Amino acid sequence: VVGALFYIVSDGDRLAASVKDQYERAPEPKRLEILRGDAHAQHIFKTDLADDLTDLIVEFLLADQF
């Protein structure tokens, strides 16, 4: 059994449309979080959203969905 998929993207990321498309095509269970800004991937941790991103990831990993 595959666990839930978690997509995180910045709304201004040049790959945002691709990530949203991947999310739409992915099977359930899945979750999508769209953050403000234009940082890509790990570079979100270099922004003022670093704590929010960390909280989202921890919340997802602790959720009873696996």
Major β-sheet annotation: 2 strands, parallel
Spatial ordering of strands, largest sheet: 1-2
Mean pLDDT: 93
Shape: flat
Proportion of strand residues: 15-25%
Report on this model:
The protein is an alpha+beta fold. It is 35% helix and 18% strand. The protein has a two-stranded parallel ribbon with strand order 1-2. Helix 1 links the parallel strand 1 and strand 2. The longest helix is centred in the last third of the chain and has 13 residues. It is flat and about 30 Å long. The N and C termini lie close together (8 Å). The model has no long low-confidence stretch (mean pLDDT 93).
How is the topology of this model organized?
Elements: E1 5-10, H1 16-25, E2 30-35, H2 50-62
Parallel strand pairs: 1-2
Brief synopsis:
With 66 residues, the protein is of the alpha+beta class.
What brief labels describe this structure?
single chain; flat; 18% strand
